[in-house]
Amino acid sequence: MINLALDIGTTAAPESYLFYFLAPLSVVAALGMLLVKKAVHSALLLAWVMISLAIFYIAQDALFLGIVQIVVYTGAVMMLFLFILMLVGVDTSDSLEENIPGLRPVSIVAAIGFGGLLVSLIGRATFGRPIYGLSAANAEGNAFGIAEQLFTKYVFAFEVVSALLITAALGAMVLGHSQKSKSKFAQRDLSIARFRKDNLNAAAGLPAAGIYALHNAVDVPALLPTGKAAPTSISNVLQARGDMIESATFQMKSEEEEEK
Amino acid sequence: MTNAQLISQDPGWIIALKGLIIFAACVFLTIMSVWGERRIVARMQQRSGPNRVGKFGLLQALVDGVKLALKEDLIPKAADRIVFVIAPIISTTACFMAFAVIPMTGPVNFFGQQTAMQLTDLSVGVLYVLAIASVGVYGIVLAGWSSGSTYPLLGGLRSSAQVISYEVAMGLSLVAVFIYAGSMSTSEIVAAQDQWWYAVVLFPSFVIYAISMVGETNRAPFDLAEAEGELVGGFHTEYSSLKFALFFLSEYVNIIAVSALATTLFLGGYRALPGLGFTEQWLGGWFTLIWFFVKVLAFFFVFVWLRGTLPRLRYDQFMKFGWKVLIPFSLVWILVVATLRVMSQQNAPRALIFAFVFSVALLYLAVTSLIDRQKTKIAEAAKFIDATQPSFPVPVIPTSRAEQLNG
């Protein structure tokens, strides 16, 4: 495999082209994420930022991290985000009113703190002590190196984080769970109930709308052999709304009436 | 030399040519598999299928493609135009990318250069395929959302839930393979199967992968995202012309892709069937390509067979199956496999390994029998509890003594 990462401070030509191509795109996408109106658009832009980050990781020889970034963040976390956004509303734009009081000062403090952290990190990477040992760490393959660190030196931290995540997942399940006092009346129960009634008229299903009538629309009742409308052939909802078409107009006229 | 070493020596023009060949092969295979599916399903349903265009109707899919291209391209008024256009592009791009890491032949002579028919060899190749698959789902979900109408939205929602749940089972089924092969690179996994295929050694993993790959590709009986009886066309209801053709293309490329991955991980990839190892040297090694495609097409046939045989699952049954059966089962299976692996690495005595397997089997029997007993208990209890649905007419039980006395 081609080793793309060189010593710190120097960059291979392909990597720098990749960087100058992708970095502006990801910054624009990150800004766009804050500025666009529709929530789904910003989720998409965030997904793009994550993918370009993953590409940067891969270019820096952190192959495993890059791929896992796509699987976990783009594939699972953002997909869940999208799922929720789509469930909540198709066309909802973010409302710009602030619902929670005191959010502004808190967010400003957090932003300054995060900015300071970033500056110090970048400064440390650029001016601080030289970082070396990447090729040594990747000697037996990137995934192997990470696994060795995770399961020997940092195994306790790893276990703590996993316990935390499991607790969070369990907590979400407990909070989201509601005990049903009665079991849900499902297809199977409906089917059983239909056959346990006193008469089995409806056992084979209710008559469909419009049978033997002049029209077969859903709001036109079926006609019984007597020429009367069959009330069971129309949905209860339509009956309650009064959307049912008067069945009398569709009843067959008896011969006596026609003679007159 | 291993495949990975051969591939890393490729000059640029070979990489470009290989990319082109793989792309062309995918498109050709897709077109032929559309025709193949229609013919096979037709035969299963006592029809003859498309047989008018070309010999045996071989050109039918091509003609259909031309027809789709000539249709009017509609974008609904309520649609989100940019996302609506991007969605099929994401879907199609992603499904082709998975082929980059699939090893299709052993070492072969490629225009005078010794190489293997595999575009690139990543040390985490299988994870790469998973990552690409998870990006590909964006196409379906976004298509559903951006159409601005109800059925596509429902289709998109179903699809995202489906993929999240079945990707977990799929990923877990691969873990056992990683443990046994000691690698996540596709070429090394194939190389590790020179003795036994993982479909035999890790049979439960193979079954879980085979089930979840059907769920992952939105194919019958798991095609809930485009259930035509419930959602018209599901996520692609509003799509027409070439955009629809792209979704169509990506569905079939996806089927071939997951089949190719299954072949690589479980059926020994490009290796010959057991006992036919001498054929791997035929045609200067190119005969392995035939073995690879025979296996992939066998998987494709199973896909078509499933579609011709099984009715669509109900949504809740589908989800229950994924979360309550596939995932717990594969978690337990991984534990068993990992323990066995460590035992064999530490040269544990054979008696200990047998004892472990025996105790696992015993535990399995105990747990299932307990569950069965609990189920019958609940069913018995339900007969008495469910007072709203009496099994036969009974007089109303009086609630108080006074009522009883008064009659």
SSE blueprint and pairings:
The complex is a heterodimer of chains A (260) and B (407).
Chain A: H1 13-35, H2 39-59, H3 63-88, H4 103-127, H5 134-137, H6 142-153, H7 155-176, H8 187-195, E1 222-223, E2 229-230, H9 236-241, H10 255-259
Antiparallel strand pairs in A: 1-2
Chain B: H1 3-8, H2 12-44, H3 60-70, H4 81-97, E1 107-110, E2 113-116, H5 125-146, H6 150-181, H7 186-192, H8 198-201, H9 203-216, H10 228-231, H11 241-266, H12 287-309, H13 315-345, H14 350-385, H15 401-406
Antiparallel strand pairs in B: 1-2
Helix pairs in contact in B: 2-11, 2-12, 3-11, 4-5, 4-11, 5-6, 6-9, 6-13, 9-11, 9-13, 11-12, 13-14
Describe the structure in brief:
Chain A has helices at about 15-35, 40-60, 65-90, 105-125, 135, 140-155, 155-175, 185-195, 235-240, 255-260; strands at about 220-225, 230. With about 260 residues, chain A is mainly alpha-helical.
Give the overall pLDDT of chain A as a whole number: 78
Q: What is the CATH homologous superfamily assignment of the largest domain in chain A?
A: NADH-ubiquinone/plastoquinone oxidoreductase chain 6, subunit NuoJ
Number of helices of chain A: 10
Query: What does the largest sheet of chain B look like?
Result: 2 strands, antiparallel
Give the low-pLDDT segments of chain A: 1-9
Shape of chain B: globular
Q: Which spans of chain B of ≥5 residues are poorly predicted at pLDDT below 50?
A: none
Total DSSP E strands of chain A: 2
Count of β-strands of chain B: 2
Biggest interface, residues from each chain: A-B, 35 and 37 residues
